[in-house]
Structures are given as C-alpha cells and as structure tokens.
From TrEMBL:
<feature type="transmembrane region" description="Helical">
    <location>
        <begin position="244"/>
        <end position="262"/>
    </location>
</feature>
<keyword id="KW-0472">Membrane</keyword>
<dbReference type="Pfam" id="PF10129">
    <property type="entry name" value="OpgC_C"/>
</dbReference>
<feature type="transmembrane region" description="Helical">
    <location>
        <begin position="176"/>
        <end position="192"/>
    </location>
</feature>
<feature type="transmembrane region" description="Helical">
    <location>
        <begin position="353"/>
        <end position="377"/>
    </location>
</feature>
<feature type="transmembrane region" description="Helical">
    <location>
        <begin position="328"/>
        <end position="347"/>
    </location>
</feature>
<feature type="transmembrane region" description="Helical">
    <location>
        <begin position="95"/>
        <end position="115"/>
    </location>
</feature>
<protein>
    <submittedName>
        <fullName>OpgC domain-containing protein</fullName>
    </submittedName>
</protein>
<feature type="transmembrane region" description="Helical">
    <location>
        <begin position="204"/>
        <end position="224"/>
    </location>
</feature>
<keyword id="KW-0812">Transmembrane</keyword>
<feature type="transmembrane region" description="Helical">
    <location>
        <begin position="289"/>
        <end position="307"/>
    </location>
</feature>
<keyword id="KW-1133">Transmembrane helix</keyword>
<feature type="transmembrane region" description="Helical">
    <location>
        <begin position="150"/>
        <end position="169"/>
    </location>
</feature>
<dbReference type="InterPro" id="IPR014550">
    <property type="entry name" value="UCP028704_OpgC"/>
</dbReference>
Length: 407
C-alpha cells in the first residue's frame, strides 16, 4: 500500500508534492461522512460532530479548497489562467457526471428498498417522495441541480464552488483581496438570506454562496507562490502564535460546551438570556453559521501545527488507507453514499454490537479497497502514458538534431 502512495508523490523538491496531511484528514472526513449517514450507528457518537460545532463536511470543504489552491494555483503559474480554468471546468464536468450517476443509483436503491419493504418512510425521509409522484420532472430538475435529495447535496455545492474558483484564480496571488471579497459576500449572504433556488422549496441545504468562504480560505492557504529561479515555494502556513493557540482552544472548548448544553442540559437554556438562548439554538448548517466556521478553522489551525507536513507517520501503514481514500475522494465519496444506505438497512434488522462492528468494518474496508484500486489504476495510466511519450521523443530526436545541424 505504501508503494501506491510513493507512486502518487512527485519525485523530489521541498515545495513539491502533495500534502499528505490534507489527504489523510480528507480520508478521515470521508470515513466520518459514511458513519454519520447511518442512523443508529453507535460509532457515530465518536465523530467530529459530537465534539465541535462542525462536522466532516466542513473539514471536507476546507481540505478541498486547500487541494484546489495547490493544484490549480500551480497550473495557473506554470501555464496560464485559461489553461487552469479549462482544467477546473473539466473537473466540474467529471463531478457533474458523477453526481448524476450517483443520483440514479441512489434513487434506484432507495426506491427498491421502499417497495420491497412496502414502506414509504425512506422516500419521505430522504426527500425522494416527489420523484415517485413526478419522476420525469424530478429527473429534469436533478439534471439542473435544483432537486437534491438528502445525502446528494454535497457534490452540487462542490460543483458551484469550483465554478466560483474559475474567475477567482488570479486572486490567489492576492490572498488578502480574495478573502476580503469572500468575507463580504459571506456576510451579505447571511444578512439578506441569499441562496440558490431548490425545486422542492427553500434553497440549497448547503448554500454554496455562504460555504465559499471556507473553500476560498482553504484555497488561499494551499496556494504556494513561485520563487524566481527557485521553483515553487513551500505552502505558507498561518504563523504559530501562543495567542492564536489559546483562542483556538477556547473556541473548541466553547463549542463542546454548547453541544453539551444542547444535548444533555436543555433546561439550562431556559435560564439563559433570551438572545443568547436563541443564538445557541439557531446554529445553522445551511448558511455555515459563524460558530461552525470558527470551529473548523480553530481545529485546522491546531492540527496544522501539531502535525508537521513531513511527519513520518503520514507515510506509515496506519495512515496509508486514509491517505489513499483522500487522494481518490470522488469515487470514495460516491461509494460511501451507496454503502451508508446498505449499512442503515443492516442496522435496522439487527443493531447489536456484532452487527455494528461488522457494518463499520465492512464499510471502512470497502472505502479503502476503492482507494487502492483507484491508486493502482492511476499508476497504470501514468506508466502507459510515459512510455509512448518517451518513444515519440526518441523518434523526433534525430529529426530535430539534423535540422539544427543544417542551420
């Protein structure tokens, strides 16, 4: 497995190569998403959403922005904006096709289960009831990204975030301006309750107009400006400062306290001043509430300094499964949505500890297997592409030499 990871890394260079921290933590986030999507899964009590005012989705979006800043920022500097924009649009097309495929498979999976069990509860809970009533119109709205059943709302948000990055690519070189514009847009979206329209009413569950501030924060952190004559620099980090560490710890401690009050001490809310009680009970996920934003940023700051970029354990056997999952996030995520519903069905039949263990171990093993296969396939593609290119270069070499001699 470690051979796959080595094969996916650039050869050398201090600033070159993937940041395995982002890959590993994105893999963990994908695993948490699988766990959190299975109602009745007791392992869900140990995921991020139980200890902070954020969950794996915030982590996934932040790391997606970080990876985009590294990859497309490098393309922007090596080639041009048009080439980087074309690469982004191609990725958007891949995500769109994956989303539509996942929509069809997930709808068929849930619909078949509801028919087999003679229950419409799944359709109602996952917001697929309208598909049964108006299938053709629902399919059209899904193609337009205006119909998003539960669990199928992350990829549409990601698609819009990448589209927003296309015109914002040059601003990676001016991170202060990028974050100022992104912050202003975030505040305006929350103040005026702006959102993209949803066919079934209301707006998108994950409002990309608000979540863009987290994505662009990651992109600004991931972009490494080139150094004249020295290649690309190391990805910059927010400097270590005891005050920022203390603020991050306090933020996460307050997050845990709010969760504790909301889950186990609801009667305490009645004793609080009404404005404060309303604030603590309206921490929404749709518009990325500021408390959720601060929580994920505080966690990222602490982990970013606690885990060095070249920590040896990131290349070890324990981290390898999560690194592979993070490096191949799209197929892993799509499989996780399908597997989560299967796990839910299994836990509804038997939720004792043996079934709990079997479902979670099988789910993780399946995600890791997908990462391994995707890693092998990528290495195979690189190998096949390398040899034809070398052969073509050999064929062209004599001609180039003779023409040079002739001149």
């Amino acid at each position: 497995m470690r051979q796959f990871i080595r094969g996916l890394q650039p050869a050398s260079g201090v600033g070159a190569g993937r940041d395995l921290r982002a890959d590993a933590f994105r893999g963990i986030a994908l695993w948490f998403i699988l766990i959190d999507h299975m109602p009745g899964n007791r392992l869900g009590g140990l995921t991020l959403r139980n200890i902070a005012l954020c969950d794996a989705t915030e982590g996934f979006v932040l790391l997606a922005g970080y990876a985009a800043g590294i990859a497309y920022g490098a393309t922007l500097d090596r080639r041009s904006w048009s080439f980087a924009a074309a690469s982004l649009l191609r990725r958007v097309g891949t995500l769109y096709v994956a989303h539509i495929f996942l929509f069809v498979v997930f709808t068929a999976q849930v619909g078949y289960s509801a028919a087999a069990l003679e229950s419409s509860a799944y359709l109602d809970e996952l917001h697929l009831d309208v598909f049964g009533e108006q299938p053709y119109l629902a399919l059209l709205q899904a193609l337009l990204l205006r119909f998003q059943p539960a669990f199928l709302d992350i990829l549409p948000m990601y698609i819009v975030l990448l589209l927003l990055l296309v015109p914002a690519l040059p601003l990676l070189r001016r991170p202060a301006l990028l974050m100022a514009l992104s912050g202003i847009a975030y505040v305006a979206v929350r103040l005026f309750d702006l959102n993209l329209p949803n066919w079934t009413g209301g707006g998108w569950f994950f409002n990309p107009l608000a979540w863009q501030v987290l994505f662009f924060t990651g992109a600004a952190l991931g972009y490494a400006p080139p150094r004249p004559g020295a290649g690309r620099s190391v990805v910059p980090v927010v400097p270590f400062h005891p005050g920022l560490v203390a603020a991050s710890v306090v933020t996460l401690a307050l997050s845990a306290a709010v969760l504790l009050v909301g889950d186990y001490r609801e009667h305490w809310l009645a004793e609080l001043p009404l404005p404060l009680a309303e604030l603590l009970t309206t921490i929404d996920k749709t518009g990325l509430h500021p408390f959720r934003l601060l929580s994920i940023l505080a966690l990222a700051y602490l982990l970013g300094h606690a885990v060095p970029r070249h920590a040896p354990w990131l290349r070890g056997r324990l981290a390898a499964p999560f690194v592979l999952m993070g490096q191949h996030g799209l197929p892993v995520f799509c499989a996780g949505i399908f597997l989560a519903f299967l796990g839910r069905l299994a836990l509804e039949m038997d939720d004792r500890w043996l079934m709990q263990a079997a479902v979670n171990m099988a789910g993780l093993a399946a995600l890791v297997s997908i990462g391994v296969v995707a890693g092998w396939y990528r290495l195979r593609e690189k190998g096949e592409a390398r040899y034809p290119a070398a052969a073509a270069a050999d064929r062209l070499q004599p001609a180039a030499a003779s023409s040079t001699t002739a001149t």
